Amino acid sequence: MKLRLLILLILTIGFLATGCNSRISHAEIERNDLGVAQMGQYNYKIAHATFQELVKDRPDWIEARVNYAIATLNRQDEGDEHQALEILSSVLDEQPENVRALYTSGVITFHLGKTEEALRFFSKTVEIDPNDAYAVYFLGQTHLQLQQFEQAQKWLLQSIDLDPYLTSGYWAGSQTARRLGDTDLAEELVSSYNRLKANPASRTASINYLQMGPKAEAVALGQVEVLPAAKPAGSVFGEVTSLLESTKNHRSIAFNVRTNSPITDVFLPSRNDIDWYFLDRDSLALVLHQSISIGGVESVALGDVDNNGSTDLVACGKEGVHWIRLSEVASNTDDGLTLISSRSCFASALVDSDHDGDLDVVFARERGVSQLTNLRDEQMRFEELIIVDASKPETVIAIVASDLDSDRDLDILIRYEGSSTTVLQNDRTWKYVPFPGADGLEDAGIGPFVAADIDSDGFPDIVGVANDNRLVAFSFDGSVLTQKNHQYLKEGNSEDIVGLAAVDVVGDGNLDLLVHTSHKVFVLFGNGQSESLDGLQDSALKSAVPTYVNASEGPGMLLLNESGISFVAPGIGRFEFLAANPVGERDASQMRSNASGIGTRAKLRVAGEWSIQDRINNHSGPNQSLMPLMFGLRGHESANHLVLEWPDGVLQTEIGLNAKKLHLVQETERQLASCPVVFAWDGKKYEFVSDVLGVAALGFLVEPGKYASPRSKERFRVDEEMLQPKDGNYVVKIGEPMEETLFLDAAYIEVIDVPEGWGVVLDERLATSPPDATGRIITFQEETLPDRATNGSGADISAEIRLQDHDAPDPGPVDSRFIGRLESDFEITLWFEESLPVANQVLVADGWMEYPYSQTSFSAWQAKAEYSPPTLEALTADGSWTLLLESFGYPAGMPREMAVPLPELPRNTIALRLRSNLEIYWDRIRLVTEAIPPPSMQVGRLEPVIAVVRRSGFAKRTTGEHRLPYYDYDDRSPYWDAKYQEGSYTAYGNAIELVAEPDGAVAIVGSGEEVHLEFEAMSSTEHGMNRHFVLEFNGWARDLDLYTRHAETVQPLSWLRDLPPEKRKQAERLHESHNVRFERGY
Predict the structure, then answer these.
(1) Domain 762-768+780-933 class in CATH
(2) Which of 466, 465, 474 is nearest to 411 (CA)?
(3) pTM of the predicted protein model
(4) How is the chain split into domains, by residue range?
(5) Residues in CB range of 459: below 8 A, 6 or more apart
(6) Per-residue pLDDT reduced to its tens digit, 261-303
């Protein structure tokens, strides 16, 4: 903060005094401030135009020119880096020690791979300002790229001394320490990194706006810090109102907050039934709606079990586990009730424990814990998985789910009647293992506990009641669970604590502890102070749970005691709140989160501070309610932004969230990953070609314990008009406009010239059974189109199948449960008036498909719903069908041409039939007769002469009819909610050594990056010849899907272990030289 204020002071003086010219006007200051705001909203092109006009009018305003250069850099149009450098060079001509111009010039030259130049700029910056952690870090990085390890280590260690939250310094420092042979220091730095990486306050230094450091940010003049409003005087608790006086022995309370009406559904389990009440939040009228006849219920949980948009109730009790569809249930009948387990149940949690997009039931049975896995099959069946079996004699009385290690899945805490606890780590594929370092917590003998991130460090805290009624807390430190000290955990309590809840009561953005005994309720604030609730009845208090009242006042409370239910209104001594209700979109084809959004982690940024809440139980009681998240705004009128991490791993950022409003946040439908995308210069623009290396996916889960074997080479044919010379070179770009990492080993262009009348295809597809795809050139003269084509119902689809025009026949209804799968097989029959030749036939098909993800594959396997690749059959004139190729493969991704050589056809074949339940859009299908290549055919192979790794931004994707994808390279956004996998990427700049040959040494690029490739163009074709290009890529890709093996990290580079020792050493040397840029998150 001091550094930013110092920079702001210097800049203010510089802004106001601009050489010999007149002072800057108020209107000009406002124009500059507008550009800064546009930069903060990631509207870089608009900001560029704003600063461009301002600098045109005031070329003497030095700092506005620096802002203009920063906007130019982040716009990311072709040549913008060089244009930004020219602007900064002109500034340095006038002010050689302008620290912002020096630093930003260093960032740009570092980005361009001009490491020696960057070293000079960063050295001068650090000389002027030795306390800028980012400048010091990048100075260390330049030394690291120059293989100057001792100097690199000096500056990298200094960067984390200056800013302990700059995690890039820990990672890069550990790599340098290893190269210097200091293993102990390397392990110490990695341990510190692991402890900090989940903390939202942690930072990475990267070539992205707001991650490059404060000197590379556009700066406003006359910035005035908006001070928060003072906390209103008064109590945080309001009036206590009796809602229901009842002698019925209700055991606990649960509720579902409807966000489209003022009604909250309140559920009160008792000995013989569950009473369902409607609570009007405006009038506080509580009206009995009906009683659901299930006896002996111990706990209930709310959530949309079948993802149909309606909230359901799961009841756990002596009569088993029941799924109750509230939209169908009728009073005193069994309509809408399904018994999903007959085992007696003592406690439960409703969560997506296997992260397959639906809700499962984790429940305590006698002497053990089980998971009822939602199979998502057509019968909506559940399958029991034993998690804990008779490990402790005590009865389980509570189950809490929380992502304790922040690895994107939900771990389980089990509380037993005798105040003992078991902590289990979720391994996703139906596996639970003892949580590392949980002995201290398990031996502490804690009673009621709650899991919530009370210190906003990225790891949930487990806060519980020890034997002496003290509150204790444990949290993951990056390797094990350790005990922590918090301000409100100082002393014991005179009465036994019955329940806890973690909720922001004050509105200051911090989670407070709401505590209740059998006779009182009080709140413990983060500063160690407390406040008690007055006006309680004398009867024993069974439950005190926070509940949603409205968006502005924060949580109220529902109290259950022996005489009935009371409501505690929010008090006047609070800051204002906002509310956020994250829900999955059940109709979206790419959605993989449960419709209730249970398990979503939400991080709200207000005035530079973070608040973190999970959409899951925030109290220690037996029930699981459903309500919006309530965030205090610390006295401000709005939040900077809200970051949501959905259960499927998708990150989503929302801006413009104001106080006193309920913000309904639906998960954004988008394609998270496909495969690396290719663009080629066609003489006018960089045109979208397709995606590649779908055959080379690393860690793709087929079923638990089984992963697909990648094929590390793919060849892609393009017509001559798709690839035209630009300044004497063919230019191809391969990059990642999605959430994925590309490992590019080599790239080539093959140039094939054939005589007119000859055609060329490639033996390419994603082969799922023999024959294997070889990528070889297939030449032909004879082409046969079907005379007629029909679908499975006999409808004529000839027009769609005979032309390559991206007009594909409709394959039928899509299975809404699983991406890329149809409800039933789609058949295409190709009819021929004349019998087909027996030999040398090749099936050639143009088309595209929707890929399933690893998570989808697991979910489908679990439901026993198979993905069936295309099978091909032949019909002869006598009416008999013969199997030719079974599950032979498909076009591996976005629009492309695939070919498969056929075995000898039966004589008198008059029709071919394709059948599959994959969501494939067949565009054109034909047969060609393979022929020996003509003697005049010429084949040339081009190696890259230029290979540059660079930041490209995210090409805009549009999706046409039948999910036809298109990427527009001319319309790129510099920013998108896409994460990097953790690890070392290739330094920006020259990467020719990494991609010159397939030797295992790879260029590694992540989201929003590309490898720019140029190949020396060949002379024009001779008269009477036609040209075809083949783009060949050797490499691999790995996405961030929860079920993809090693999805979180760049490592391991598994192919290295298969290399001969000398080749492996050479590849590792190249990696140590080039792959030194650390990235993580987004």
Answers:
(1) mainly beta
(2) 474
(3) 0.83
(4) 26-216, 237-615, 671-758+936-1081, 762-768+780-933
(5) 198, 199, 404, 405, 406, 453, 475, 476, 477
(6) 999 999 999 888 899 999 999 999 999 999 998 888 999 999 9
